[in-house]
Amino acid sequence: MSQTTGVAVIMPDLTHEQRICEQWNVRHVVGVDEAGRGAIAGPVVAAAVILPLDDPDRLALLAGVNDSKQLSFARREALYDVICNVALAWGVGQSTAAEIDKLGILPANAQAMRRALAQLDPAGHFLLIDGRERLRGVSLPQETLVRGDSLSLSVAAASVLAKVTRDRLMVKLAERFPVYGFGRHKGYCTRVHQAALQAHGPCPEHRQTFAPIQARLPLPAGH
User: Fold this and answer.
1) Which end of the chain, N or C, is less surrounded by CB atoms within 10 Å?
2) pLDDT digit string (tens) for 88-98?
């Protein structure tokens, strides 16, 4: 229960992971989530996390882990190292803006997820993926979970790793392309970002196939 509002706050837990372990007779359930799918600049980043479901003492260290969008910048940064230390395995993968333009955002997002999964050691036995999109190109059984980052602790942990990793990447891009304010809006289509695009046009880190960027690209010859 929140001390400030008196309203009970429902936090993600391991209900779905435990059900999957019993139904499928598996041990390593992988929570998978992404960050940056709706941005107009920068990469899309995915994370995969396996938590030690049979170690309550280690899991207790994850108190406060929630959907990354519900956490402050400082809280996400603090929880990043905790998650990495508690997890049995974790991995992060990305697809660049150029790959997003080449493949499309959904295939590029799936590619980032597969890259994250490839880093897991030990490997996962079952995927629990935030949202509605199943992951093609992997042999593991899987389940999608709408609002999974608010319901599953494994998915919430993955959401934090993905968000922190992407935010750090966008801060580095802000050093290379300072006129756009990437460090502030992280590549999303805010008013500040739109104003910078109006003044300077897009850079190589903008997703050229996204409508807000296409509107500011020069027309092909002959038009």
Assistant:
1) C
2) 999 999 999 99
